[in-house]
UniProtKB/TrEMBL annotation:
Residues 7-224 form the Alanine racemase N-terminal domain. This is Putative amino acid racemase. Keywords: Isomerase, Pyridoxal phosphate. SUPFAM superfamilies: PLP-binding barrel. InterPro entries: Ala_racemase, Ala_racemase_N, PLP-binding_barrel.
Length: 356
């Protein structure tokens, strides 16, 4: 069975770097755990880091979080579906909201459960995913402040996830001004301006983050060391906290050009090959990992002399060249991946999850 590993020591070092960075700028932060897909062993590793607040977008994951650590403060980080309101109030201490009718339902359910449910109101700042339109923000807050069993603890925004709209100083200053306007108009204190995520971290390094942005939600950079702003890797963070290992289940020297009449593969793709290379040969390894588990393009061989020759539902073909390492059937090949690749693998029940 293919398996994925989480390196405890490297995760801790990445966490310490971010925690120190945020601490130096008086920023509270939460770890986004949705990539872990509710895996309790991995969640425990995250909780042992010392974080006080985690975010997730699946109720089942929030339930798993509370099962591992009932005292962990949880944030539901997408607009709550109406049918999930009872579970969200039960397992999420905080939710991010954009619709008044949903907040009403949260209020009613919180009253039934004898709780005060905290909310962060998300504002549309150009990404066109979730968020109250800016012209409606003041009216939205005025109505929500009247809701019983609801505590407004923040204003926030999301950027880059849908269309790649990048955060900048101007957008985050605008968000901060809305916070000041609402506090002054309604004589209310709003603790959080939740304008930060992994993609916003470079603004801290550049000295461009407004001081009023005091809450971040970070997942990818913690687990993968990614500079999400430009797709590079932070040199001072580990990019191999997570690794993938797959077993070689066949290894033969074969031609590099298929033989026969060509149609389409299982994904409907068609291929053309240079017939002048029909005499070339290469060692080709089949591994026990397939498109059911991860998209081929998201799998990165640790040995950069290898490349992926193709994939089907349950197997991927790796071109080993001359196989200078003398690999054989039963040996493991090591890979890294990106955020979406890790998300798919961790969501696959066919992939073993291990801590090292």
């Amino acid at each position: 069975m293919a398996f994925i590993t989480l390196d405890r020591k490297k995760l801790k070092e990445n966490y310490n770097y971010l925690d120190n960075l945020f601490g130096e700028h008086s920023i509270d932060w939460a770890i986004v755990t949705k990539m872990l897909c509710g895996n309790k062993a991995y969640l425990k590793e995250v909780f042992d880091l010392g974080i006080k607040q985690v975010c997730d977008s699946r109720v089942s994951n929030l339930k798993a979080i509370k099962a591992v650590n009932p005292k962990m403060e949880t944030i539901y980080i997408k607009p709550p579906p109406k049918r999930s309101i009872p579970s969200i109030v039960r397992y999420a201490d905080v939710s991010m909201n954009t619709t008044f009718e949903t907040v009403q339902l949260l209020s009613e359910e919180a009253r039934r459960q004898g709780k005060t449910h905290k909310i962060i109101i998300m504002v549309e700042m150009g990404e066109l995913r979730e968020g109250v339109m800016r012209d409606d923000v003041v009216d939205f807050y005025s109505r929500v402040f009247e809701m019983p069993n609801i505590e407004v603890i923040g204003i926030g925004t999301n950027l880059s996830c849908l269309y790649g709209v990048l955060p900048n100083q101007d957008k985050l200053i605008q968000l901060s001004l809305y916070k000041q306007l609402i506090e002054n108009k309604f004589n209310k204190k709003i603790p959080y301006v939740s304008g930060g995520s992994s993609v916003t971290i470079p603004l801290i390094h550049q000295g461009l983050l407004p001081e009023t942005i005091n809450h971040f939600r970070v997942g990818e950079t913690l687990f993968l060391g990614t500079n999400v702003y430009d797709g590079s890797q932070f040199e001072f963070m580990h990019n191999d906290v997570i690794k993938i290992y797959a077993e070689i289940i066949e290894l033969f020297e074969k031609p590099t050009v298929p033989q026969g009449d060509m149609g389409s593969n299982l994904e409907g793709e068609t291929f053309e090959f240079d017939q002048d290379k029909s005499n070339e040969r290469s060692c080709r390894a089949l591994i026990d990992l397939g498109l059911l588990d991860i998209e081929e393009k998201r799998l990165i061989p640790a040995d950069d002399s290898f490349d992926l020759a193709g994939a089907s539902s349950d197997m991927i073909v790796v071109n080993l060249g001359d196989n200078e390492r003398n690999l054989k059937v039963g040996d493991l090949l090591e890979f890294k991946t990106d955020y979406m690749g890790a998300l798919r693998l961790l969501n696959s029940r066919y992939i073993d999850k291990r801590v090292i």
